[in-house]
Amino acid sequence: MSGIKVGVVGAGWAGQQHLKGYDALDDVEIAGLAGMETELVAQLQGEYGIPATFERWEDMLDSLELDAISIATPTFLHAPIAIAALERGIHVLTEKPIAADIEDARRMVEAARTSGRVLQVVFNHRLRGDIAELGRIIDSGQLGTPYIAKAGWLRRAGIPGSSWFAQKQLSGGGPLLDLGVHVVDYVLHLLGEPEVATVSASTYAELGAKAVEGFDVEDIAIAFVRLTNGATVTLEASWDAYRADNNLYWMTVYGTDGGAELRVTDYETSEFTVFRNEDGANADYTATPGENGGHDRVVREFVEAIAAGASEWAKHDGSLGLKRAEVIDACYRSAESGHEVALA
Predict the structure, then answer these.
(1) Which of 82, 127, 206, 220 would you call most buried, defined as having the most Cβ atoms within 10 angstroms of its Cβ?
(2) Residue ranges of domains in the chain
(3) How far from chain centre, in Å, is Cα 81?
């Protein structure tokens, strides 16, 4: 890696994770930061020694010669920023979801392919030590062939504090898009990237509108997903539901030779059990999570993809983020129509 100049758009929590990730890397210069929060931007400028700051992302692109940018903004801005950067020959790392709607997502991928630059989407939860270890257990064959997976991310009263999350025009959707896209990503990743055949989903907005003015997205969603290999996945995502007062995400896998249950409560592993039989007797055991990756590793892998050279860039065109978006889009279309939606 040599002399990669990056800019970050967005100074909130996610943007700060990107700044921290870049700051930890050699031969990467954080050349600019764009954000509307003047005091926070100034604070981060001092903390990371950033030479230039901007209120408008357009001004940053016009003023600096960047090799790459990170996008950590409200979702409706992902596409215009990414496409503008890609058209200038700038590599892009964007927060999930890739875009607020499926057409914007497709336009972003097309811009990456046309420009020949890297476009990656942040899926940091697949890099958690416990989720990665579950993947290693599945890959080792201990569970045989997985045929059912159940997964989700639920909160009791966890509508994000920023009002844009609850406005469809700005966010693109509610917890199905915000949390569910992470769940879709780690489930399909751990199962070996099977193709999705059909999706049947329902969404509800019973509680959110009572809590947040202008709330016009779902507050809970559930989906039944059939895969082309014959396996089945159920997905749940909620910001607000009458349940235990915690932040829970999980994955349960049933395989031909064993099963596994992973539960993460308030971002800490609370249960991680592998279920097996040996010689006719239970041989269950508690699995040990590996080392966490998260945003730092996402940022590092983005920089490594750039440093690998132009011959490798076409492998990182945002297609994975688009595939995840297509599943979420199918869920919304199914919920709206009341019918199953076919993807393959």
Answers:
(1) 82
(2) 4-124+295-317, 126-293
(3) 18
Q: What is the domain class of 126-293 according to CATH?
A: alpha beta
Q: Are 246 and 229 in contact (CB under 8 A)?
A: no
Q: Does the domain at residues 4-124+295-317 carry the CATH identifier 3.40.50.720?
A: yes
**pLDDT tens for the chain, residues 1 to 344:** 458 999 999 999 999 999 999 999 999 999 999 999 999 999 999 999 999 999 999 999 999 999 999 999 999 999 999 999 999 999 999 999 999 999 999 999 999 999 999 999 999 999 999 999 999 999 999 999 999 999 999 999 889 877 799 999 999 999 999 999 999 999 999 999 999 999 999 999 999 988 888 899 999 999 999 999 999 999 999 999 999 999 999 999 999 999 999 999 999 999 999 999 999 899 999 999 999 988 999 999 999 999 999 999 999 999 999 999 999 999 999 999 999 999 98
4-124+295-317 and 126-293 agree in CATH topology:
no
Q: Do residues 197 and 226 lie in contact, with contact meaning Cβ atoms separated by under 8 Å? A: yes
Q: Minimal CA–CA distance to 328: which of 188, 170, 132?
A: 188
In angstroms, the first-to-last Cα distance of the chain is 40
Distances (CA, A) of 191 to 49, 150, 239: 42, 12, 26
Under 8 Å between Cβ of 218 and 226: no
Give CB contacts under 8 A, 24+ apart, made by 304-308. 304/1, 305/91, 305/118, 305/120, 306/1, 306/4, 306/67, 306/68, 306/91, 306/118, 307/1, 307/2, 307/4
Sign of CA dihedral 141, 143, 147, 149: negative
